[in-house]
């Protein structure tokens, strides 16, 4: 979205760290100093393998976790210092969609009450509660008859849309979608993605879309950030990222995605990474990716690569580009 | 090519407190020697039950083999006793599962778990079995196999465990390997490693593979033939090129269209399959997919279509295949391409 | 297709209206509790248990209305009758009191004590377990240490002290049973809450700005009810048994008051001459224990969250 240029960011993340004490004097550095901005109306995709800290980023932004250090400012205010009225306002304007459609809806509540939760908490009136819920159900492609049902009667895709309706009830501007489709069957993932895109068009929502499915992320995001072991390694416009990935990790990640087209099977060159992701409790020195990097150099073990803008709007942290 | 496994009209049900769940409702397919057959479908379509039924791993009760046969080299596995099956499992047909965390025994060293199978099926001494196990670990690409041999599963990472599972499965040179979502729980970079490994081993050992998955990308890269399942039935089967280049069932179209293409325009909408699969406690009278099918006709709600051969080896169960629906079918195909 | 001649062209009309068709819920609408009942019904033992509890419950309430005697009037002329004559269905005891009346009156008292004790268990256990699990960290650590201290004192000592302080009566016994009985309940609730508080629906409520009170009352407690009910059905028989035990060793109700424990204790003295004095109350006690345990087993299967999809 070219309109995002030169706008003030809606959310600005500066050198945020989130460390967990895992006992025995060990510290798990789930997020280890990341910085990025999100502009109004855009979708920023955040990808990476499990354990890279992408979900922790989302939860830290919305205050489910307190940041160990660094600053998250949302609309110019430091999220982690808000209290009282301002905190309530934050709860309304920043919302979250969760990963597991089976765990994200309270099994003992009716759909009506699930969706109306935000309305009840914030005492939003104006319209009658029931009318508002029905309107939201229709927005997400369900209807009135679904309001009196319990979550276990719905399929995964339908539940996920109920979760979206719950978030929309407080009329947020910014939504963190934490792997919203990874627990869904392929055939219904698009139900959720289409809905999210429609809502963005109609309401100008801003998204942080956390996922590990790279093809879906490319489709939904304007810009994409790639994380590895608690750090961002690359950030660029999504077309640029997919056409011209710079970081060796991004290159490997993209080439590992299986493509549903047998005719391309033999044409693709694949970078198959060796080994597994190291433990975030005791990550490698220097560049954390060096242990699996096909192009690792001596400097990678000793020095942490700098986060630099190599091209316009294309950031990367890698010694190859120094 | 010869058929090594031939599944004919298999029906499997589960008896629950609220009634009989007809999980597999008449599935037929065959696997040829040295080939990879992929079974794809959404969760709950019966693909995993089918694979467990081949190995006779379904507990009865609550499960029940209602009908059909599973012919392995001409012998019907469904009729075999548990004792006879023990000789088949592991030695003739082996299986790897989705979750490498729970499919290894946490209280036994990885080496011992490999050796166990080898000693059971091949008359080798302990020392020979150990040697063979280390060789298997090396084969599946586990570094320093001698020291890994004495480690426990929790000392292995997810990808390593799946490698160890493959080592166990292949240690007795089975003719058929059933891989039930072998990479679903793994990250993409690890998934690529495991798929590569499986392809490589197949080329070397000539194993036939049944690959159960929901990921069409994995299918496209690994399979020779594809069976598409929906609500306990086969709706389409054919070679990989037939299924990807000329899919004929609206459900297969739906699966293909619901994923973004490589160069998908961001302004364009994806076309998901609306709704959700039917409840197999009370499967619908007609075609199970009719409720979610854009092209459903009256007959689809009344009569379940049979699996018919469109061209040699390419079979489809859809009323659009009927001569009376020919014009409508052409219209539908055009409509699909313009989307 | 071999049967194609039987189809007419109108069957091949498209039906359209995809949007309407697809979103229809194809699952039967079964409420959470109805679902549990369907599962419970499958368990024959649990149904038998439920039936027995209902029968004994009804007899405890209405049984005394069936003959014309009452539970405390003595009639020394008909001591220790072991046959049913003159409407003394269970015979009479050593003081010539009608045993039918005494057994059902005693069963009522025993059940009241058990229900009261378990009610107190739930109130204390759920509150403390809920707070401990939900807030976690320091609060949890302090509460758990406190519980360990209480639990390490033999409960008989606590009960003897309490009974000495209070008049032995229904309340005193119920409170003494509850004094230590709440601990297992609080542990169950704590474990459940610890597990549930990181569920995504609780996180969702937090991101919406829900207060602690709202999260506890709306999201956590309703989802802990299943395990609480199971624990209750297992606590009731143990409370009944404990009451009987206390009365038997002379710490509970005292004759002429009656409870199943008192009756058994009294009957014990005449076991050789008039065993019916012991047999009837012991039989009722055993059936109650058996029945509640069967119900508990059935409920555990019916409400176990692991069984749910």
TrEMBL record, chain A:
Alphabetical UniProt keywords: ATP-binding, Nucleotide-binding, Transport
One GO term of the biological process aspect: transmembrane transport
Keyword Phosphoprotein carried by entry: no
Residue ranges of every copy of the ABC transporter domain listed in the record: 11-254
Domain of life assignment: Bacteria
Gene Ontology molecular function terms on file: ATP binding; ATP hydrolysis activity
InterPro entries (UniProt xref): AAA+_ATPase, ABC_transp_ATP-bind, ABC_transporter-like_ATP-bd, ABC_transporter-like_CS, Oligopep_ABC_C, P-loop_NTPase
PROSITE patterns: ABC_TRANSPORTER_1, ABC_TRANSPORTER_2
UniProt similarity note: Belongs to the ABC transporter superfamily.
Protein name: Peptide/nickel transport system ATP-binding protein/oligopeptide transport system ATP-binding protein
Biological source species: Baia soyae
UniProtKB/TrEMBL annotation, chain B:
Membrane topology according to the record: Peripheral membrane protein
Matching SMART domains: AAA (SM00382)
Gene3D superfamilies reported in the protein's UniProt record: P-loop containing nucleotide triphosphate hydrolases
One Pfam short name: ABC_tran
PANTHER family: DIPEPTIDE TRANSPORT ATP-BINDING PROTEIN DPPD (PTHR43297:SF2), OLIGOPEPTIDE TRANSPORT ATP-BINDING PROTEIN APPD (PTHR43297)
Cited NCBIfam families: oligo_HPY
Descriptive protein name: Oligopeptide transport system ATP-binding protein
Organism whose genome encodes this protein: Baia soyae
Automatic annotation (TrEMBL), chain C:
Localization per Swiss-Prot or TrEMBL: Cell membrane
SUPFAM superfamilies with a match to the protein in the record: MetI-like
UniProt GO cellular component terms: plasma membrane
Pfam families recorded: BPD_transp_1, OppC_N
CDD domains: TM_PBP2
Residue span, ABC transmembrane type-1 domain: 107-296
Bilayer topology: Multi-pass membrane protein
InterPro entries xref list: BP-dependent_transpt_permease, MetI-like, MetI-like_sf, OppC_N
PROSITE patterns the record matches: ABC_TM1 (PS50928)
Primary residence: membrane
Keywords attached to this entry: Cell membrane, Membrane, Peptide transport, Protein transport, Transmembrane, Transmembrane helix, Transport
GO process annotations (BP): peptide transport; protein transport; transmembrane transport
Residues spanning the membrane: 46-66, 109-134, 146-164, 170-189, 224-249, 278-299
Family: Belongs to the binding-protein-dependent transport system permease family. OppBC subfamily.
Listed name of the protein: Oligopeptide transport system permease protein
